[in-house]
Amino acid sequence: MTKFELKLKKRNNSEEDLIKDLQRVAKAIKSDTVTASTYAEMGEYGVTTFRRKFGTWNKALEAAGLKVILNLNVPESDLFENLANIWQHLGRQPVGKDIEKSNGSQYSLGTYEKRFGSWNKALQGFIDYINETSEEIKLTKTQKLSKKSTVRTNRRINWRLRATVLIRDGCICKMCGASPTKNSDVVLHVDHIKPWSKGGETVIENLQTLCSICNVGKSAETFED
Questions:
Q1: Nearest to 79 by CA among 99, 93, 58
Q2: What letter would DSSP give residue 211?
Q3: Are 108 and 101 in contact (CB under 8 A)?
Q4: How far, in Å, CA of 68 to CA of 113, rounded?
Q5: Within a 10 A sphere around the Cβ of 96, how many other Cβ atoms?
Q6: How far apart are CA 117 and CA 195, in angstroms?
Q7: Whole-structure pTM over 0.90, yes or no?
Q8: Segment holding 121, helix H or strand E
Q9: Strand stretches in the chain, DSSP E
């Protein structure tokens, strides 16, 4: 009869133990470096354990004599969009340990730390970027009103505007109050309050956060009308 055993992450291990296991994984995949997501799948210890011991994932790679993973050419806007997607997925402000493949992250925590100096500085940079968007939205709206423009906004909601609405609404469905923080199965959308097809514009005042279920229900009612 087959016996199953739990594979538990070890704690309170020395830097030497961590380095040896990191080198073991690198050898197993025949590579001169190891990403945090790959180690999370194959390693004996938690990725956060390395960050507690060494400060960053890249510093752990350096200590193990492995190649440091540099993503210095990734556009800042791509890093912010990735952060916005994780924020939407979790329904809350992400912390450093949330920047993992399991949450849909395309980049490692080390990438953010390398680019901005620390995770907190990356978050502040993201918020500054979103706030700049809000000011641009206000300015554009004022200019359109002053010119009485008849040009319509694009139906598509870009990621910066979507992130602004989600953060404004606290990542909570405005119809039923559902949020990924309460139920991980909840998927959030950003929806036009007055449908674009009926003259509603893609502006922050006409956008709201809805869960996928409420959004589908609202769309059905709009179609019936």
A1: 99
A2: E
A3: no
A4: 13
A5: 17
A6: 42
A7: no
A8: helix 119-147
A9: 188-192, 207-211
Least Cα distance to 64 among 106, 40, 31 occurs for 31
What is d(CA 87, CA 137) in angstroms, rounded to the nearest whole number? 21
**Residue 102 gets which letter from DSSP?**
G
Q: Which two tokens stand for residue 111?
A: 């990438």
DSSP letter for 64, please.
T
At 63 the three-state DSSP class reads: helix
pLDDT tens digit at each of 225 positions of the chain: 545 554 444 556 789 999 999 999 999 999 898 887 788 888 888 877 887 888 778 888 989 999 877 666 788 888 999 999 999 999 999 999 898 878 888 888 888 888 888 999 999 999 999 888 665 555 455 545 454 556 678 888 999 999 999 999 999 999 999 999 999 999 999 999 999 989 999 999 999 999 999 998 876 555 433
- Nearest partner of 130 among 169, 179, 177, 80, judged by Cα: 80
**Cα distances (Å, whole numbers) of residue 216 to 47, 69, 211:** 38, 42, 9
